[in-house]
Amino acid sequence: MKAAVLHGINEAYQFQDFEKPVIAADEVLIKVQHAAMNHRDVWIQKGQYAGLKFPIICGSDACGMVEEVGANVTQDLLGVEVIINPSMNWGNNPRTQSKDYVILGLPHHGTFAEYVKIPARLVFAKPAHLKSEEAAALPLAGLTAFRALIGRAKAKAGEKVLITGIGGGVALMAAQFAQLAGCEVYVTSGNEEKLNLAKAIGLKGGANYKTVDWHKALAKEVGGFDVIIDGAGGSDFAKLIDLCNAGGRIAVYGATAGIWNAGAPAKVFWKQIDILGSTMGTDEQFEEMLAFVSQHKMRPIVANIFPLQQCEEAAKFMSEGKQFGKIVLEMNQKLN
Prior knowledge:
Elements: E1 2-5, E2 14-17, E3 27-37, H1 39-45, E4 61-69, E5 81-84, E6 87-88, E7 102-103, E8 115-119, E9 123-125, H2 132-136, H3 139-152, E10 160-163, H4 169-180, E11 184-189, H5 192-200, E12 205-208, H6 214-222, E13 225-230, H7 237-243, E14 244-252, H8 265-270, E15 274-277, H9 283-296, E16 302-307, H10 311-320, E17 326-330
Parallel strand pairs: 10-11, 10-13, 11-12, 13-14, 14-15, 16-17
Antiparallel strand pairs: 1-2, 3-4, 3-8, 3-17, 4-5, 5-9, 6-7
Helix pairs in contact: 3-4, 6-7
């Protein structure tokens, strides 16, 4: 089969022949139609991820057709168009993942290939209202956003929600989920065009975090937030504490801006603020997320589609951070 393969840190994705997966009794083989890129794939390429090994086929998200099933898997799955839950071996504790937990795409070969294998229990029928490229964009970012917003922060209709760093996959899906859940949704970005695009999809407003005292202007406009979903961290985290209402919740799923400056601890304990760590999600939350998406006919926003042959170009595009939505790879019929 053809695949986009990483052979080392800071090396380019190589489009090449690779051994086709051989499935076990409890697995299925999926012929991939579309796969989505995540920042995780770029961090692996840059050596900024734990447990690196090479060569590796990255990619956690996919939509495709089940082409082969293992001996212990129902034949009814053959020919079904499915998406993958890339959250593997979560375990029995809904509060935290097990020591055996991994995400598809490292250490196991992932979806940047014509074929991928996965345990049958982690495949689900594609939501009927979604195109293949939209469905491929959903799993990792959708699960991360859903657990942070609904599972951890427990956002409710009528609450004011702030999503930082709009434009990336998780932030954008968190904003869409919050909007569909009946929340008033505001966002931040360092890009005015992204703020305008956020308003164009119906979000209430936002602030450019590159402007001086942006948080004070936002506080004056909104008053404060009941829920904040943050994937940045960094020196602006103290401003999120200031923006959080008494009794509010801040769910943190990433740290693209680095180490926190959390400001005065008294603001956290006097305002009774909950700071909640969140990574991916349970098998049950993946199913809940799919049900939510189907109920509300939610469509992930796809920013760009690249052919698999241009995986390296897609990674560079993601590194530039200019996208508003997910970056998707397409497995066309001309991969030779």
